[in-house]
Amino acid sequence: MLGAHARQANVEGGSAVYGSICRSGVRPDIFTYLAMFNMIASHGKEVSQATGQQARQGALGWQDANRSRIKLWQSDYSKLWHWEKDMRQRFKLQHDTLTLKALMRAYSRVGKVDDVVRVLHEEVNAGRLKVQADAYAIAIGAAARWQKMDAALKLHEQMVKRGVPATVQTYNSLMVGLKHKSATKHTNTMRLLRQMQADGLRPDAVTYHVLVSIACSSGDVGDGLRWVEEMMRRRIRPVPETWANLVAACVDGRHSLELEKVVGMMDERQEELMRSVLDEL
Question: In residue terms, where are the PPR repeats (predicted)?
């Protein structure tokens, strides 16, 4: 029953089932908490998407959408904090890396970066976290997503000092965060790209999406087009948002020749997805 609520991101239903389990005297196992943490992470994502769509369609003003989103996230955070406390202190369960990463993602989804970092540091310092690269990538991603770049960069420094290898996801998260810093975004992103390649890591579709986004936001359609051409040569399929950013930049800058070239590079399905993204912008 709990699994069904978790798959549907039904936090209230899942919380009720969890309460029944505890009251019945049955001891929850680690899989119970894995399901609960994943449920919060999924619900946080759904809340963000739903309120954003309501605002775009005019059903809610952006301020009302943000207030609604924050209220739901605060409710989820309260439950999440108590569940973590139960797992660690009340039932003293031996948690695994999978459950801890689910807990970090859940805290990230409700905007609690400090808790994400706390969980990471507690596990690393206690020597319980065997695969640290993925956990650091989650923490860095959370800090970058919530525009706490000082924390993200500090975590990256800690990775380097501990000898933890960075992943493509790590670099992508840093680039996504830095692209919002208008004054230094190009310089810092290119520095990270060179560092990433020096580590023997190859850019993926997310990496290129960030590079194209930065070029387009700077009005450099030619640079954005060159990044997409490089993707095509490396047989990396651009995500619809990459095409949408490039098309929008061409239209805004009245680059008709570049627009014709971009549209010619897309297949029918890519063009359909790109148009659906443009409709939401």
Answer: 167-203, 204-238
